[in-house]
Amino acid sequence: MTDPRPVPDGARCPVCGMYPGRFAEWAAQAIFNDGYVHFFDSPLSLFTFLDDVERFSPGRTARDIAVCYVTDSAQIAPPAWVAAADAFYVHGSNALGPMRSGNLPAFAEQAAAQAFIQRRGGVVLSFAQVDAVVLRQLVVPGGHQHSAHVAASG
């Protein structure tokens, strides 16, 4: 019941309303204790959700979440899921997420995150280091800028 799931075509991100299936290389998910799942268009949207679960999923709390997953940016085809709490995130790179703004590419291995930084810049953060300050730096003020397709790899 807590294994990662494929993103359904019609799934919508509860934070921004985008379709995570269109951005599989950035997708994330939160699975609740009762098996219900929310899919997100990016790790940034997942962290925004975790910062205020009740706002984006009325009647639920962070304590109701069994596990969260993010897509490993080192293996996007086919997508490889990694537990969000175990992933390494790159902050401050030139990789633009689905909103055509900065994001948090996620990696299962710290070495892969370091290799990404050599190409794209940024610093590695653990799950616990992605805090409100980091979120404020990444959230696009005044709304969202949607893109057709932007890959983290490269």
Automatic annotation (TrEMBL):
InterPro entries to which the protein is assigned, alphabetical: N2O_reductase_NosL
Signal peptide: none
SUPFAM superfamilies, per database record: NosL/MerB-like
A matching Pfam family: NosL
Source organism superkingdom: Bacteria
Protein name, UniProt field: Nitrous oxide reductase accessory protein NosL
Upper taxonomic lineage: Bacteria, Pseudomonadati, Pseudomonadota, Betaproteobacteria, Burkholderiales
